[in-house]
Amino acid sequence: MPHKAARPFPLQLEVELLDRLSEPVRDGRAKSVSDIIRTALERYDFANIIVMRPAQLHISVRLAPEIRRNLRQISRTKHTSVGQLVRAAVEAYLPQLESGAVDQLEMPITPPPRVAESVRAPRPKRRRRTRKTRARKRAKKA
């Protein structure tokens, strides 16, 4: 049973793993995915853990505004992160660079792919603060 002070803890799981976690819940062998994760964490011996993936570092890269827009647009349409797109591009490019198949380091800028209007998420409308709203806020603070 979870402790009263338990709070949501966001995790990023691969779809395949989440499917495997959901199966015992559907079959009635577990109460919930959260219950499976809590039990696994209680039983796991972290002293002998072997990390399968190398640690990731945060770096900054200067990108032209067009490339940034292109990456954001593609990430929205592909439902993935910009970081995933960058990793995929670099992993595809590195073998060419390492084999000497590429003479220069600069890659050509490709135009962003056309995206159907229905795919784009609508931008939330910003509510403008009127004088009345500001006056009400000031009155609440006082």
Protein traits:
single chain, 142 residues, mainly alpha, flat
Shape type: flat
Give the amount of beta strand, in percent.
under 5%
Class from helix and strand fractions: mainly alpha
Radius of gyration: 24 Å
What is the topological layout?
Elements: H1 15-26, H2 33-43, H3 65-78, H4 82-99, H5 131-141
How would you explain this protein's 3D organization?
The chain is mostly helical. The protein has five helices and no strands. Among the domains are: 15-48, no CATH class; 57-112. The two termini are 44 Å apart.
Quick structural gist:
Helices cover 46% and strands 0% of the residues. The protein is mostly helical.
